[in-house]
From TrEMBL:
Keyword terms, alphabetized: DNA-binding, Transcription, Transcription regulation
Residues annotated as transmembrane: none
PROSITE patterns: HTH_LYSR (PS50931)
The name this protein goes by in its record: LysR family transcriptional regulator
Highest taxon above the source species: Bacteria
Signal peptide annotation: none
All residue ranges annotated as the HTH lysR-type domain in the record: 1-59
Length: 157
């Protein structure tokens, strides 16, 4: 189970004071919320909550873990926000055949480079397959019915 998700579930349990309320708020089943709580307790190596039929209260360890959990989820949110706002920069190495470069990529370059001014584009134009790792290519565009074995191919268009 994902520890960040377990931490988020634990925080919601603590905020709402109930596994059922946390399950409803998170759109999860109650057993799933219970499993996340168990994961947090295993991770912490101690019991985090006292459960009764009517009430859920935090143990002393549960209080400490809640503070750490808040820090963890805040950091997770910050990291996620940075990647969503990140502006592409650096060098992008693209390999493609001569026809693809001239007919398909060239007309798109001015708009692409205007949209991503911090990106430097290196085109490797050739008509033979390239070693992505050996030649440090980020993306290879090939028009073929038979992709290379082991290549991750995606149909475009």
């Amino acid at each position: 189970m994902d520890r960040v998700i377990a931490a988020q579930v634990y925080m919601r349990i603590c905020e709402l004071g109930s596994l059922s309320a946390a399950a409803r708020a998170l759109g999860m089943s109650r057993p799933m919320v219970s499993r996340y709580l168990e994961q947090m307790e295993q991770w912490a190596g101690t019991r985090l909550v006292h459960r009764s039929t009517r009430k859920l209260t935090l143990t002393a360890a549960g209080e400490k873990v809640l503070q750490k959990t808040r820090t963890l989820t805040q950091l997770s949110d910050e990291i996620a926000g940075q990647s969503e706002r990140a502006i592409p920069s650096g060098t992008l190495r693209v390999a493609c055949a001569h026809f693809t470069a001239m007919q398909l990529i060239s007309p798109l370059l001015p708009d692409f480079l205007a949209r991503y001014p911090q990106l430097r584009l290196e085109l490797d134009i050739n008509n033979h397959p390239v070693s992505l790792i050996g030649e440090r290519i980020d993306v290879a565009i090939r028009i073929t019915d038979n992709p290379e074995p082991g290549a991750i191919a995606r149909r475009l268009g």
